[in-house]
Amino acid sequence: QVQLVESGGGLVQAGGSLRLSCAASGLTFSNYAMGWFRQPPGKEREFVAGISWSGGTTYYADSVKGRLTVSRDNAKNTVYLQMNSLKPEDTAVYSCAAPRYPNYISSWSPQGMEYWGKGTLVTVSS
Which residues of the chain carry a pLDDT beneath 70? Predict the structure, then answer.
């Protein structure tokens, strides 16, 4: 079965950096677009960043453009989220996700994703 496992979360001061990783198994990783989502405390899950199956196209929420960078290594079945200039409002559980079908992405909303990791907590202190 498909498994997505995130790592790299933790506590960081405002202005600091973190790099999240998501290791995938059970799917032909290089054929799947991948997304990063986050759920702040008491709020709904929201889209953060996405990357096409080849890695050639990336997508970002306006709130993170210029600060967060999504990338992937298809040889390692891993997608990354480099997080720089972190703000307290970036505090959330960050999860990676994949859509149901390969070579296809209908929407970068949570409803457009089929497979989810359990998430990793990022806490940014002021």
Answer: none
